[in-house]
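My current task is to audit a protein record that another person submitted. Thanks in advance; the entry in question is below:
***
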Amino acid sequence: MNRRERFHAAVEGRPVDRPPVTAWVHFLSDHLPGARTAELHLEFLREYDWDIAKVMNDYRYPLPAGLERLDTAEAMRRFKRLTLNERSFAEQLDAIARLRRELGPDWPIVDTLFDPYQQVVRNVGFVQGRDIPRHPQAAAEMLEAVTETLCEYVRASRAAGADGFFLSVNTAIRAGFPRGVDDAIARDFQRPYDLRLLKAAEGSVRVLHVHGVGLDLDRVLDYPFEVLSLSDRLQGNPSLADLRARTGRCLMGGLNENTIQEKPLPELRDEIDDAIRQAGRERFILSPGCTVPSFTPQRTLRCLRETTRGP
């Protein structure tokens, strides 16, 4: 199988010659032009020969000029629908187009998205999310503007060459855990906008990345998506076996992103074997649960790739 065949077979639950494998890192590229961002991805992809080009998106969503706090309705209403000429969108779209030209048609490209609520608070500070329910009408207007902008971005990314989207959502994180919210905030200020973004991505491969720990999967398992990704190795999160019992969709994960850089190679191979035992060879993409540290050793990533090739 070539990469595209292997990827789509895994997503669709058809037989594979082996499970696809991929990994990704942050390149700290917010300050770089799209051309350089594409070069960094190309170097990483070609060095490790991953099956999927999971493209990081380190360009932050543009904030209104001078906005530092989100504690008033007036601040929220400063968010307007943006054009894709904004640098954050234009550079990522340029990177996607360059990667498609360089990688050719058989290397699947999966662009990275963040849910609309998260796009706002990850830039102004997650703690300021506490102010969103205090101004529900203004918050709804803000999230509507961000969602409309992101839906347009999704359409443009597909046109540039993306085969799918890795949508990171914090919606399932329960209150009391990092970035967690209560049921009402998830229901009113996250879920409706998540669904709009997933609808815009319909027709591509939608990887729902349920970020974090302390997860309530009932908040998101009825979302429309093709692949479910989460940090299955982190304490308190469901295992691959648990997830396999709950959904028939393709699973993505199996590796502990927090320990991969320090794990002895025999233990890494054991973790790979255990992941495949839990999830099965089909409907499964082997990957870390989230981003691996940028200081992960070359020998570790090479071991991951070589082990999946088999003898």
